[in-house]
Amino acid sequence: MTMINVTIKGKNIDAKFGFGALYKANQKFSNHADNGGSLENGAANIFLSLLTGDPGALMKVIQVIIPSEYKEDDYIEAIEELTEGGDKLDEVVTMLKDEMVQSGFFKKAINNQIEAFEENLPMLKANEKMEDQAKSVEAALKLMKENI
Protein backbone atom coordinates (compact mmCIF):
# COMPACT_ATOMS: atom_id res chain seq x y z
CA MET A 1 0.00 0.00 0.00
CA THR A 2 1.39 3.36 -0.99
CA MET A 3 1.10 6.58 0.91
CA ILE A 4 -0.78 9.66 -0.18
CA ASN A 5 1.08 12.85 0.62
CA VAL A 6 -1.31 15.53 1.86
CA THR A 7 -0.31 18.95 3.15
CA ILE A 8 -2.52 20.24 5.94
CA LYS A 9 -1.78 23.41 7.87
CA GLY A 10 1.71 23.46 6.36
CA LYS A 11 2.49 19.94 7.57
CA ASN A 12 3.15 17.07 5.17
CA ILE A 13 1.24 13.97 6.17
CA ASP A 14 1.68 10.53 4.62
CA ALA A 15 -1.84 9.14 4.66
CA LYS A 16 -3.07 5.70 3.66
CA PHE A 17 -6.20 3.61 3.42
CA GLY A 18 -5.27 1.34 6.34
CA PHE A 19 -7.38 -0.14 9.09
CA GLY A 20 -7.70 3.19 10.91
CA ALA A 21 -9.16 4.80 7.79
CA LEU A 22 -11.55 1.88 7.33
CA TYR A 23 -12.69 2.13 10.93
CA LYS A 24 -13.30 5.88 10.66
CA ALA A 25 -15.09 5.46 7.31
CA ASN A 26 -17.44 2.89 8.78
CA GLN A 27 -18.05 4.98 11.90
CA LYS A 28 -18.79 8.20 10.01
CA PHE A 29 -20.30 7.19 6.68
CA SER A 30 -22.16 3.89 7.08
CA ASN A 31 -25.85 3.44 6.46
CA HIS A 32 -27.98 2.19 9.33
CA ALA A 33 -30.48 -0.65 9.43
CA ASP A 34 -34.08 -0.13 10.49
CA ASN A 35 -33.10 -1.22 13.99
CA GLY A 36 -30.46 1.54 14.12
CA GLY A 37 -27.45 -0.75 13.81
CA SER A 38 -24.61 0.21 11.50
CA LEU A 39 -24.30 -1.65 8.21
CA GLU A 40 -20.51 -1.04 8.36
CA ASN A 41 -20.49 0.06 4.72
CA GLY A 42 -18.95 3.51 5.03
CA ALA A 43 -15.82 2.58 3.07
CA ALA A 44 -17.92 1.25 0.19
CA ASN A 45 -20.13 4.35 0.33
CA ILE A 46 -17.08 6.59 -0.04
CA PHE A 47 -15.80 4.48 -2.94
CA LEU A 48 -19.16 4.69 -4.69
CA SER A 49 -19.26 8.46 -4.13
CA LEU A 50 -15.87 8.77 -5.83
CA LEU A 51 -17.04 6.61 -8.73
CA THR A 52 -20.15 8.71 -9.30
CA GLY A 53 -18.10 11.91 -9.43
CA ASP A 54 -19.34 13.44 -6.20
CA PRO A 55 -16.77 16.14 -5.32
CA GLY A 56 -17.96 15.92 -1.70
CA ALA A 57 -16.40 12.47 -1.58
CA LEU A 58 -13.02 14.17 -1.31
CA MET A 59 -14.00 15.60 2.08
CA LYS A 60 -15.03 12.13 3.24
CA VAL A 61 -11.72 10.65 2.08
CA ILE A 62 -9.65 13.35 3.75
CA GLN A 63 -11.61 12.97 6.99
CA VAL A 64 -10.77 9.26 7.18
CA ILE A 65 -7.13 9.28 6.06
CA ILE A 66 -5.98 12.38 7.98
CA PRO A 67 -5.79 12.52 11.79
CA SER A 68 -8.99 13.88 13.32
CA GLU A 69 -7.18 16.65 15.21
CA TYR A 70 -7.80 19.02 12.30
CA LYS A 71 -10.84 21.19 11.59
CA GLU A 72 -13.16 21.19 8.61
CA ASP A 73 -11.53 24.33 7.17
CA ASP A 74 -8.13 22.58 7.36
CA TYR A 75 -9.53 19.65 5.36
CA ILE A 76 -10.99 22.03 2.78
CA GLU A 77 -7.64 23.79 2.40
CA ALA A 78 -5.88 20.42 2.01
CA ILE A 79 -8.34 19.40 -0.73
CA GLU A 80 -7.82 22.70 -2.53
CA GLU A 81 -4.06 22.16 -2.48
CA LEU A 82 -4.23 18.46 -3.39
CA THR A 83 -6.46 19.17 -6.41
CA GLU A 84 -4.65 22.41 -7.31
CA GLY A 85 -7.85 24.39 -6.95
CA GLY A 86 -9.87 21.75 -8.77
CA ASP A 87 -7.66 21.69 -11.87
CA LYS A 88 -6.50 18.15 -11.03
CA LEU A 89 -9.80 16.94 -9.57
CA ASP A 90 -10.22 14.00 -11.95
CA GLU A 91 -6.59 12.96 -11.51
CA VAL A 92 -6.88 13.04 -7.71
CA VAL A 93 -10.18 11.13 -7.73
CA THR A 94 -8.63 8.42 -9.92
CA MET A 95 -5.59 8.22 -7.63
CA LEU A 96 -7.76 7.92 -4.51
CA LYS A 97 -9.98 5.29 -6.11
CA ASP A 98 -6.91 3.27 -7.13
CA GLU A 99 -5.44 3.55 -3.62
CA MET A 100 -8.70 2.33 -2.07
CA VAL A 101 -8.73 -0.74 -4.34
CA GLN A 102 -5.08 -1.48 -3.48
CA SER A 103 -5.87 -1.46 0.24
CA GLY A 104 -6.73 -4.94 1.47
CA PHE A 105 -9.05 -3.44 4.09
CA PHE A 106 -10.99 -1.25 1.67
CA LYS A 107 -11.06 -3.85 -1.11
CA LYS A 108 -12.62 -6.36 1.29
CA ALA A 109 -15.21 -3.80 2.40
CA ILE A 110 -16.05 -2.94 -1.21
CA ASN A 111 -16.36 -6.61 -2.14
CA ASN A 112 -18.62 -7.16 0.89
CA GLN A 113 -20.89 -4.37 -0.39
CA ILE A 114 -20.93 -5.89 -3.87
CA GLU A 115 -21.99 -9.23 -2.35
CA ALA A 116 -24.72 -7.53 -0.30
CA PHE A 117 -26.04 -5.75 -3.41
CA GLU A 118 -26.04 -9.03 -5.35
CA GLU A 119 -27.87 -10.78 -2.53
CA ASN A 120 -30.54 -8.09 -2.12
CA LEU A 121 -31.12 -7.16 -5.76
CA PRO A 122 -33.50 -10.06 -6.59
CA MET A 123 -35.73 -9.14 -3.62
CA LEU A 124 -35.79 -5.49 -4.68
CA LYS A 125 -36.64 -6.41 -8.27
CA ALA A 126 -39.47 -8.67 -7.08
CA ASN A 127 -41.12 -5.82 -5.18
CA GLU A 128 -42.86 -3.36 -7.54
CA LYS A 129 -42.71 -0.62 -4.90
CA MET A 130 -38.91 -0.91 -4.85
CA GLU A 131 -38.39 -0.61 -8.61
CA ASP A 132 -36.50 2.70 -8.41
CA GLN A 133 -34.32 1.43 -5.59
CA ALA A 134 -33.61 -1.76 -7.54
CA LYS A 135 -32.44 0.31 -10.52
CA SER A 136 -30.18 2.39 -8.29
CA VAL A 137 -28.67 -0.69 -6.65
CA GLU A 138 -28.19 -2.33 -10.04
CA ALA A 139 -26.38 0.76 -11.38
CA ALA A 140 -24.20 1.01 -8.26
CA LEU A 141 -23.38 -2.70 -8.45
CA LYS A 142 -22.32 -2.41 -12.08
CA LEU A 143 -20.17 0.64 -11.38
CA MET A 144 -18.45 -0.97 -8.40
CA LYS A 145 -17.76 -4.23 -10.26
CA GLU A 146 -16.24 -2.31 -13.17
CA ASN A 147 -13.86 -0.46 -10.86
CA ILE A 148 -12.73 -3.05 -8.33
Automatic annotation (TrEMBL):
It holds the Pfam family Phage_TAC_12. It comes from Weissella oryzae (strain DSM 25784 / JCM 18191 / LMG 30913 / SG25). It comes from the Bacteria. InterPro entries: Phage_TAC_12 (IPR024410). Residues 107-147 form a coiled coil. This is Phage protein. Keywords: Coiled coil.
